[in-house]
Amino acid sequence: MRVLNVAVVIAGTSLSALPVSVFGQELPAGAAALQWASVNLDPGLASGAAAGPNAENPPVQTTGSTAPDAPLSTQGGVAGYFANWFNRVNQAQASQPHWMTPLVTVTPRLEEEVRYDQFWQHLPNGGSVHNFDGGKGLELIPTTTNEVILGLPAYQERQIGQRPQASGWGDYPFVLVKQRLLSEDERHGNAIVTAFLQVTAPTGSKAFTGDAWVVTPTLAGGKGWGNFDIQATMGVALPVGHFGTTGAQLLTNVAFQYHLLTYFWPEFELNDTIWLGGTQRGGKDQLFLTPGLILGRFDLGGRVRASVGAGYQFAVSPAVRTIGPLDPVYAHNWVLSARVTF
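Now predict its structure.
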């Protein structure tokens, strides 16, 4: 299935998602109108594209349930919208590649899951930071071309040697909205392009807050060739305040991934941050390399599946600085990620 979508996104809210072209079976006008009404004006389900495998659309590995779609509800209003929720999720995921979400890089794919990450960061000055949750949380697919991530603030503990130095909550990455622009599943190009917009609120403890709202627009994409895929993002973190001190950050992530033996997803990532201005780190380029392995997707029953992964992240630039703002922000980091999709 190949789907091209155009949408307007303002302040993290999708105002419209209109399929421009869908290469699939067209419904007669009367049937199309009836189906459109039955799914409450949802553009993906109203398009007439098949939501599940059939003779012309053989099955591939999916991220959710392998059971056939439930019949579309003809209820109207809010009740009908929620009654057709998982049909929309199935349609959204059937029309995109079925790669695994990388450890660090945010996937351009749409996912519906609960996610928890854990970081054990080792600082250049000999200290360490334990980061609980990593700003992850609940990921939902409200339309066939959108995802909304409701993040949670990470709880962090920092210590020097065996002596605790600070603990508390980080800033609150309360919403990230994805708008999928182009998607082709494994049989029709194996590629995807998605735009993100994230907003982070300065609600953290004194030791862990940036003390400014941050808006991060991002463009993401991916391409697969057989069992190999590349997923990448490039975005700019724009602080609303203290720009002269912190500057903006150009964030680039690239994940190289291979799928083998059903459940194994080895990967290698490049995670780069360039500070654009600011007196603290202006002009610095921080690059991490992250080899890792993700295991999944394990069937837990129904449409529920679990995945778990781990990796080791280490800095290769810039030169170490232990006086003033630390460079790099941390020297190396063990990463653990657990996800349950539904």
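Residues 262 and 269 are 21 Å apart (CA to CA).
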